[in-house]
Amino acid sequence: MTKYNELLATANKDRKRVGRGISAGGGKTAGRGTKGQNSRTGKKLRATFQGGSRALVQAVPKARGFKSLRTPAQVVYLDTLNNFDGKVVDNAALFEQSYISTPFHKVKIITRGELTAALTVNVAGASKSAQEAIVKAGGSFVKTEVPLKQSTKAAEASDK
Q1: What burial class does residue 80 get, using C-beta atoms within 10 Å of its C-beta: 0-12 exposed, 13-18 middle, 19+ buried?
Q2: SS3 string of 100-155?
């Protein structure tokens, strides 16, 4: 007796040819049923057609405008940078101090209050007045790219 795994059966079956006579197995109505709009040849109905009643697509009002997929920059105010006296301020440092929610998004420094500490600021952006205030306090501003998130495999490899 042959075993199931030793059967000489092909995995790929040919498609069923319908409408080729009674003896072929899919003759006469060819699997379409008897009469009606769906049994006819020619133009098929669109996916949203609901039998002649008003389609849901037409009943729902159009959404105006658009939704931007761009993630907005995380805002950090200038006066909060006084806590980083003499240090380098970048996305990682701001994240550690809980000024931003994630270190992998854009950060923009906005002017509010006064900056007294001399800092090196390495973030994606800052307003002109914030840049002037950083330089005036004796620090420097360097526009940098947003750090990319490492994959878990790469992070584990760099830890070893």
Answers
A1: middle
A2: CCCCCCCEEEECCCCCCCCCEEEECEECHHHHHHHHHCCCEEEECCCCCCCCHHHH
What are 35's two structure tokens?
């009469």
Nearest Cα residue to 47 out of 60, 57, 62: 57
Q: Average pLDDT for residues 75-82, to the nearest whole number?
A: 93
Main-chain phi, psi angles of 143, to 5 degrees: -75, 120
Which of these, 131, 143, 146, lies nearest to 91 by C-alpha position? 146
Q: Which residues contact 70 (CB under 8 A, 6 or more apart)?
A: none
Domain parsing of the chain, residue ranges: 74-143
First-to-last alpha carbon distance for the chain, in angstroms, is 57
Q: What is the mean pLDDT of residues 47-72?
A: 87
Q: 142, 122 in Cβ contact below 8 A? A: yes
CATH topology for 74-143?
A: Ribosomal Protein L15; Chain: K; domain 2 (3.100.10)
Write down the pTM of the prediction: 0.57
